[in-house]
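Appendix B, record 7
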Amino acid sequence: MSDGMDACAMLGAVETRSVSPVFVGRAGELTALTEALSRATAGEPQALLIGGEAGVGKTRLIEEFLGAARDQGAVTALGGCVELGADGLPFAPFAAALRALHRRLPGELAAAADGHEGELARLLPELGDPGSHEPSGEDSTARLFELTVRLLERLAADRTVVLVLEDLHWADASTRHLLTYLLRTLRRGRIVVVASYRADDIHRRHPLRPLLAELDRLRTIRRIELARFTRAEVHRQLTGILAAEPDPGLVEEVFERSDGNAFFVEELVVSHEAGCAAGQLSDSLRDLLLVRVETLPEAAQRVARTVAEGGSTVEYGLLAAVAGLPEDELIEALRAAVGANILLAVPDGDGYRFRHSLVREAVSDDLLPGERSRLNRRYAEALEADPGLVRPHERATRLATYWYHAHAPEKALPAVLRASVETRKRHAYAEQLSLLERAMELWDKAPAETRESLRPIDYADAYPACGCDPETTSLRYLDLLAEAAVAARLGGERERAAKICRTALRLLDGDENDPLRAAWFWTETARLQSNLGRGDGWPEIARAQELVKGLPPSAVHATVLVGAAGWGMLRNPGPEALAAAERAVEYARFVKDEPIELNARITLGTILVSAGDTEGGLAAMHEARERTIALGQFHEAARAHVNLSSSMEALGRSREAVEIATTGIELARSRGLVDSAGWIRANLAESLLSLGEWDRSKEEAERLLRSGASSTKPGGTALLQLAHLAIARGETARAAEHLAEARSRYGARDPIPQYTLPMAQVAIAVAAAEGHLAEVREQLAAIAETGFPPGTHRYGWPLVLTAVTAEADSRGLPAADGGRAEALALVRRCVRGLATQAPVWEAHSRQVSEELARAEGRETAARWTEVVAAWEPLERPYQLARARRRLADVLLVEGGRREEAAALLREAHATAVRLGARPLREDVELLAARARLSLAPEKQAPAEPGDDGFGLTPREQDVLRLVAAGRTNRQIAEELFISPKTASVHVSNILAKLGVAGRGEAAALAHRLHLLDTPL
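Structure tokens (predicted):
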């Protein structure tokens, strides 16, 4: 052995500072972190992402920040992602951080989790039994996410909490989803969330990459990218490590070889101080990382290799069982590895991990293939012999990992399937899918007797049970595919789910002959085709219908029928859809599957309303809503709120729609139904826009877009409301941007009228605002070609009104004359197919007729007066203001009624100003200026007895007195012999007329202005 190698062999005994005692550089980054801490302490939650290549100094920066935070009295909690490959432990960093909070604040955390211990135990088993409290599905995952955020907000209500999640590049999908939800929805509490990731690991297809791109769009999140050290910073780092001024040649050599990577600087300095020649270190990263491991005693090297294969952290008991060393020798080996800064004792438990993950990777990669398999087998055997060696919630996943890497399919397949069941119970669907895919990989490798010993482990949604004794019936590969398809869909991997379904259908077309299961897979495929924007799903539904014909009744039959009815409700809500919905209800009732029946009844009610049976349809949906709530079927109850609020808006009953939507959002949020809440909130934004509550509509739409609701279509609807609002406020370019994004969300392969018609209306409005009349005509012609299916009048009337108004506005322009007759004829053809089953659509019909007359130069004040009269009883302030402006114009043209025209213009102007409708305001101001009319409010005459000056009706005055007395809506209804709903409408009208936000303000204003002088 050469002298140089002798020196290297002595490396472990040399006393050197491998970590600089001086914190080098990062002043700006540390300042950003401490400023975020200050803002959080003031009550503004903060979120920061720290990225940088491996070894650049992310952990050291975080350690310095945590020290500073603790010095200021903050409670800190650290959790790191665990690297176990594709089957990484779900929620590992959150579980570790919550465990740290549980140790530091046991009482406070228990109080914050009060009532939800079982659900939160999926993340923190110490809280109790993580039994399933909800059916498995997206909603149960959303519920867990919301409870986690609520827990953190409560903990941070009166103390500053710093939550650090390290190594996001190893994060499992469930952790990524929970982090996204946390960063999007955290709005309260004195909390700082810091997450770090290894930037050089984020390749083009890395699963963290789209998450980082999404988070970049959130203004509330700050990104900190750590660059490598400069030469000056390396010089300072070397000075700190050596506790002396370094030689300039050493600084240059280390800087060049390390490229400024702080970890590599440390390793090179240690080797240099030990007397190792530069030539003994390979240029490859692995050799650089392994050099210090190779200087350890043989027993310590053996232990390091064992730890490297055990996972990110290995418990001492498990390590002792696998290492095969006497306890004293094992402790001495660990002492040597820890003393050399290769391993670290885990501060929060009885275990060990590598100081730097790169070293662990290098040691693991350096193992021989047979050596790696042997170590994994020993880990698996030790864990099977003593399951208590690891935490219960990690046991199944780690055992599956060990047997898989041990290349023992006869043991790995059952272990992987057991682990998949455990991950499903925790609603970690992405990890369940990874495990099921490993099971699919192992299926043919496992011996036949192993496969025959497997039993059905679960049934995916309505996937048909085997119809036999599960104790004696083997699990089939087809059953495995069904579980994987549902796990993929619930985990958001729709592409993978579709591929799995295709695989299953190929098997069913071949040797497998099972029409019921084939129908189930075709129904799943139909749903996925629509979700992926690759079609409307009807061919798949039709195939499923053919397959179940003649088979004994089952839940699959009912599911197929409900799918067909739902398809018709959205795309062709005519007699066929109605008949399909009725059949679905009857069949679901026949097979005694009430959840499916309730779903079908909601669909039926929606179609009935569209068909004109208003009362019957609403009653069916109300009954279904009450029954689903009574049964605890909250997903179906939320869907009832979605369809009810939409139907009320379709009937022009926007105030009732707002009430239903508000109740539905509260229900959905309380049950963690985030996606359902998104659908309802989209409806709420639409109804608020109709009612003239534009700022609130905008707030709800933007809140929906921030919420990250899993479905893209509610976001598309929210964008359309923002587009309508932008048009009305004169922001044409912004409206076009919203429209483009909405189109992207809806996709182009599944044209559903409730999306395509509103998009066409916005496109027509944008073209009209830009003066492109030819484009307006082209858009209308394209829509007229496909027509307006039954029940789509709610979208058709506003669209046609927008188009005909553009024609009328362009009358007299030479460029618009050509093709005008044809365009107006097309408008008349369109309106013949539109129903007027509610007053709001009758008002639209009257205005379209008069806009046609205006386009042809034959409008009259008498007919415009009828239009205004049609709008006045309705809560549609914007439409009423536009009609008043038109009537005023005609009155001025006809002459003799200037005062009446002035009053109309003042009313229209006041509405435009209040709404922020700039084009309408400017139009009114221009007309008033041209007619030399003042828009200033007229001096009010003394109020007549009984006139309150706010336009309150006698009934509203009665309601106001009771509001001021503190009565609830129900109490008001009882005293005045009206319904609670009518009382609610009166209260809403009073608040609007008084210009106040709440009941308390209304009472105070009434008392201050002596509106309540008459005794009750």
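Remarks on this record: The first strand starts at residue 46 and ends at 52. Residues 1-18, 278-284, 939-949 have pLDDT under 50 and may be disordered.
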